[in-house]
Every structure is written in structure tokens, then in C-alpha cells.
């Protein structure tokens, strides 16, 4: 059961401007589209994609760290790691299984010729977009188990984009599409409350001590 009393108490430590900003941002947050990164080698790319998730209102980021486990570069993420929920996996099989369990269709971002062009793809059901490493791209495991493949149209000599650039283009496109569609893309009431509490805790210094004293006084 959600602790409304604790939320009300902790929000008393925030300014009205801060509380209203949280409500404004959460009103545009979605889990309908989510992102999965498969062993991206350059950590600044993972950090930049985290920032893109925040900018375009995606709440969850799933990161497979089979070979290249590192810490997000906070200078590039610019604080986005506080507001985006990063879920970590040791291999792609576990990540795929978890996303499938949650009801997501798996869409692989790949420049392969058989891929659908981005402008033709409409996410009418919960969608997880997979991005691969800068050198090898996505693994055969993901490509074979994906429900579909999508690519960005390219008109020049280059055959691919930096993974963080590709992610930004695709996320902006899909975020706009779902908000202009009849799908129920917004967070549920329970999810909104949970994120309000989470973000409030992250905004208060010594919050654990404050909560401990609050619980003693109840």
C-alpha cells in the first residue's frame, strides 16, 4: 500500500515550484515506449541516451552489460540518471525475457535492408527499442527474437549513425507518435505516486535520517 502520509510529509521540504515541476514532467512521462541498450561500448553514448530518455519523457532504460559494464558518465547525462530508471542485466537473454514478460514487443534498430523505415513504424502496443554496440550492432540473439526491425532513412554515403544520435532520432519520433495517438501512453496513477515519492526523496538532503525520525514520531 502506498504511503500517502510520507509523501505529503516529505513534499513539505520542497518548494511549490519544485512540486509543480515534478507534476508537470510526470504528466508527460511514459513507459509505453522503452529503450534497451545491448553492451554499448562507449559509456558516453549510454549517458547521452539516458539524457535523451529524460528529454523525450521515457521513464525506463534497460542496459545489458555483458562485457562493457561501466558507470554512467554524469557529465554527459547531466543529472538525467536521477530521473530515469536504469535497469541492468548481465545478458541479452535475461533482458529480452523480462521485457517480453512485461508485455513489450521487441523492435531492433538496425540498418539492415529488410528493416521498416522509421516513418512507417507506429507503436500501437508497448514497445522496447533495442540498440546495439557501435562496432558490431545488435547480437543475433536480439535480431532473431525481435518482433520487428526499424531503420532511419539515410541519403548519403554513410551507412550508419552514432548509436546515441540514432537513439535520439528514433525516441523523438516515437514519443511524438504515441502522444498523437489514442494509445494509453501515460503513467498509471500508482506509477505517478511512486515516482513523486522517489523524486522527492532524491531532492532532499539526509532524507534517510528525516524518514527515520518521521517514522519514530508516527
Bulk shape:
elongated
Percentage beta strand: 5-15%
Main beta sheet: 7 strands, parallel
Count of helical regions: 10
Give me the CATH superfamily. Answer: SPOUT methyltransferase, trefoil knot domain
**What is the number of domains?**
1
Give the CA-CA distance, first to last residue.
17 Å
CATH class: Alpha Beta
Which stretches are low in confidence, meaning pLDDT under 50 for 5 or more residues running?
none
The radius of gyration over CA amounts to: 19 Å
Q: How do the SSEs run, as a string of H and E? A: HHEHEHHEHEEEHEHHH
CATH architecture: 3-Layer(aba) Sandwich
Strand arrangement within the widest β-sheet reads 3-2-1-6-4-7-5
Class based on secondary structure composition and strand pairing: alpha/beta
Strand runs, count: 7
The CATH topology: Alpha/beta knot
Mean pLDDT: 89
Percent of residues in helices: 40-55%
